[in-house]
Amino acid sequence: MSRARRKIEHIAHALSTGSVGKHGFDDIVFVHQSLPNLRTNDIDLRTTLGELTLSSPLFINAMTGGGGRATLEINKGLAEAAKECRIAMAVGSQMAALKDANERPSFEIVRQVNPNGVIFANIGSEATVEDAKRVVDMIEANGLQIHLNVVQELIMPEGDRDFTGALRRIEQIVRHVDVPVIVKEVGFGMSKETAVQLADVGVMIVDVGGFGGTNFARIENQRRSAILSYFNEWGISTAASIVEVSQTVPHLSVIGSGGVRTAFDAAKAIALGAAAVGVAGSFLKLLIEEGAESLVEEIHALHTDLSLIMSALGAKTIEELRRVPLVIRGDTHHWLTERGFD
Ligand code: FNR
């Protein structure tokens, strides 16, 4: 099957499969505060991610590019919404565009539409330093995402089977590329052990890409009628993963993503320790089914809702939201206790 065809199939399956798993946010309960002592209008949504300053903690996470007209239109719509709402955006994997110049326009459009926006390039952990520099240059990126997708590769019969050397390549990229590097999972979550390994080689920003949102195991299995079904429930929930990583390596900037759909989810991700929150599948669904204007409305609504939630918690800044009291119950509590967090 061609790569372009696979990309379109992924999008179609992502839309139909939707978010099915347990991201763990239902286990998080905020503790209401009756004396917030702030004005909702004074709430400041700015956040920092490593050395980057973002005007909002929300951003559009990596999805697509390459593969022809359809992905160009998607990236154009996502970039228009990102520009209008002043949020950051990541493009999908640019690995194919390194080899084939025909794949580039659907990435380049993102920078053309949004010349001053914060945009993240995206590659896999098989990439070299040279590849990394080229994908950053391709879209004049402000940051570089390196995705880790072992389970997705294992499920694809044509996928990679050699996972050696990824950490060493990441280390080289962090050293030699001049934009901040974000190492991200793609829906299986990130453990504290992985976070320590990444921090040890100089990574400053990680995206937990937790279980509970878009599920590539299900997507790949659906495409070939459930061969490796044991991977369908594989992964660390987004809520548990944020706590594992942020509490184990406090100097890391953590992005909470995987199944974030509402401002309530986003607020919980931040309160658990995230500095920013990525949304992929649910934004894509809205863009394709209802268009870029609906996506813009949705992002504005998410910002409004986040300000209201922060008001109720007495948190004027994202930094303050990260410190509000909360209660963790159910499976997430159980997971975190088993994993040595109290
Ligand atoms: C993705 N995702 C992804 N991630 C990445 O780093 N490079 C990529 O090329 C892609 N491609 C891609 C395509 C499609 C159609 C979807 C829906 C997602 C993964 C994405 O960035 C994110 O980590 C997961 O989707 C989990 O977030 P959501 O979708 O639950 O918000």
UniProtKB/TrEMBL annotation:
Keywords: Cytoplasm, Flavoprotein, FMN, Isomerase, Isoprene biosynthesis, Magnesium, Metal-binding, NADP. GO terms for molecular function: FMN binding; isopentenyl-diphosphate delta-isomerase activity; magnesium ion binding; NADPH binding; oxidoreductase activity. Signal peptide: none annotated. One of its GO terms (cellular component) is cytoplasm. One of its GO terms (biological process) is isoprenoid biosynthetic process. Gene3D superfamilies: Aldolase class I (3.20.20.70). Coiled coil: none annotated. Mg(2+) binds at E153. FMN binds at A62, M63, T64, S93, N122, K184, T214, G259, V260, R261, A280, G281. Its cofactor is Mg(2+); FMN; NADPH. Its EC number is 5.3.3.2. It catalyses: isopentenyl diphosphate = dimethylallyl diphosphate. Substrate binds at R6, K7, Q152. It is found in: Cytoplasm. Residues 167-323 form the FMN-dependent dehydrogenase domain. NCBIfam families: IPP_isom_2. PANTHER family: ISOPENTENYL-DIPHOSPHATE DELTA-ISOMERASE. Belongs to the IPP isomerase type 2 family. Involved in the biosynthesis of isoprenoids. Catalyzes the 1,3-allylic rearrangement of the homoallylic substrate isopentenyl (IPP) to its allylic isomer, dimethylallyl diphosphate (DMAPP). Homooctamer. Dimer of tetramers. This is Isopentenyl-diphosphate delta-isomerase.
